[in-house]
Amino acid sequence: MAFDLSFIWAFVILIGVAVYIVADGFDLGVGILLPFVKQEAVKDEFIDSISPVWDGNETWLILGGAALMGAFPLAYAVILEAFTFPIVVMLFALILRGVAFEFRVHSPAGHKKIWTIAFVVGSYIAALMQGMMAGAFLEGFLIGTTAQGTHFFDGKDTDWISPFSLLTGVGLVIMFAVIGIFWGAMKGNDTLKNRVLSFKKPAIFALIIVLIAIMIAMLFSTKLMPLLVGARLYLVVGSMIIIGLVLLMLLGNSMSAGKGFLLTVFIMVCGMVGYTSLFFPYIIPPSITLEMAASASSSQMFGLVGTLIMLPIIIFYLSWTYFIFRGKVIAGEGY
Amino acid sequence: MFGVEALDLARIQFAFTVSFHIIFPAITIGLASYLAVIHFLWLKTGKVKYENIYKFWSKIFAVNFGMGVVSGVVMAFQFGTHWSEFSRFAGGITGPLLTYEVTTAFFLEAGFLGVMLFGENRVGKKTHFFATCMVALGTFLSMFWILSSNSWMQTPAGYEIIDNRVVPVDWFAVVFNPSFPYRLVHMGLAVFVTTALFVGSVAAWHLRKGNQHPEYKKMFSMSMWFLVITIPLQIFAGDLHGLNTLKHQPMKIAAMEGHWTNEGYGATPLVLFALPDSESETNRFEIAIPVLGSLILTHSLTDQVPALDEVSKADRPNVPVVFWAFRIMVALGGLMLLAALISLYQRKKGTFYTNKCWLTFIVWMGPSGLLAILAGWFVTEVGRQPWVVNGLLRTADAVSPHTTLHMSISLLGFILVYSLVFITGYLYMVRLMRRGIDSSETTAIDHDNMSKGDQ
After folding, report:
1. Distance between CA atoms of B201 and A300, rounded to whole angstroms?
2. What's the gap in Å between the CA of A99 and the closest CA on chain B?
3. CA distance, residue B145 to nearest chain A CA (Å)
4. Which of A184, A241, B63, B377 has the most CB atoms around it within 10 Å of its CB?
């Protein structure tokens, strides 16, 4: 019973993280691309495109954290403790990004520029930290065991910094830029659309190069290379090949922005499949499984009932809000 | 030595971040309901006055909400980063409660806030009102779950301890634990009172300057009526909460009362003023009223209230902090009651909107609700020490084993970032409040059609 519930919870958390990466991914992508947009009005338009939805997008991150605490308290305790530094930095970055939405509009004229910079810097740092944590997570945690059999993080505060995690960090920044490009092309009027689309080719080429570098780094990593066996190998290589092919498709000129956006989402889903297969069924790689980190089945059951009832409702009304704000950004819309 | 220092830093950091954070939801919850009421009046009467009030406060709400969200995300992760032993021990109960908060409250607020703030021209009037109501509902549900979780840590129920961690056995008992109903009512009233004072003081500021617009009069009058009704209720609820605390956390009450010993005493006096001294375990410069403590807390003339010396020093909270925080809260409550009473007198005298002394008093009362909430939380949280989960897990055993250096850097980071971001944000909010109502934004021309042509 406990194992089945853990399995479902792992799936729910995975969905939460995947939705977060896609949804807040293009939000952060807007911040990453913003320095390359010159006119102030176009910058405003770009930020306006996410103003009504960014908060809902970010909530998926909190769902991931809360669900992890409830269903796998050991994993929540160990992973967050090990990642204290990058998490705190990411939170500061998200604070800067989050308040910048309101402060840009309501601050005295001279301050607007500062909050635009805060928005950009916050987006870059949040994306970089998330990508680095993703890489460091795969490389695993040093786990100790007490005499009572409790597991704890036995590594250093800086274990999360490695050449591999730097690569995945940069990779995620570029990935978010790519999805931000298609989002901007989809939501933006002509000036914004043409501007962001001019970055499509360089961004996709950069992404391909980073992905190849990540693959090579994995082959030379003593921590990651042994993982690439059996079904895992096929899933990782398979998803990489699909991602590569779709990226090449995206380079073509005839595609509509909406279709490009959906294909980028598809790439991110494939990436998640390949990524997850690298550590499943562990939740604290390389040694603690889902089952070992699970909370009591009474905890998992209580949380799951509510979550499974609420998720369809949440997806319904969030889709509805996206429907309301469909189409191009209307200049000056707001309150 | 090092362990203790890192613990202190973690505690300061938690107190700092949570104290900063609570300011925002305290206003968000009350303001969301206030906006829903104003929106209802706007929808029903079609009066420009209500539209103006709605648009004015929704801007301030948005700034406040944004700061509440980002500082709240910090809280969700801090349990793991800085209190990993607590998460491991109690995550099986606090985690699912937090998950319920996310799925029932956070998504609701976040999803409908966009429609509320940006959707006026994209949805019908009723849908727009519905969005405002959903945001208000979300803020209320959020308070429900977070107070349930906090109350469970104060008065744990419905659990067993298996393999050195809590395992829930009765979720109804967990959610509706003994102190939860009292805390929910007390905090619920507190956030509404806080908002009434906040709105009232902004209106008073403008009225005092001579802006006798109907909007400010409406805001001011509504706020003051609200205080008249809720302050007496709040005093009553606070008393009940105190009795509940006496039953479940007697040492917290003993600290609030500065009550060190029952030896050689009959009925417990009520200490009005004192400087509690934890070293000598006595109060210096004490001014006390005999028997009144027993009368208030046990409703008898002879029964004694439990005293601090009934437990060892290591099991007592920090008495001076709890003692003074409690007095600050009660004193602010007294001032609020005074404000409510004067408001009735001013109305009767006909100088309600014009008496400068009275208006100045309310302007200064603006932050009093927030200060009272902060003081109240200091009473309840410091009063719970040395336990993080009352009677089950000590705070000292709950902390992550980070080094002092690590904790110092992160504490410094939090102080810098929070001061910079949130104080700046508050200054922007004050700026919006001073600027006041901007009638040019109103859709005054046609109220029966969907609001077109604003901007």
Report:
1. 46
2. 6
3. 13
4. A184
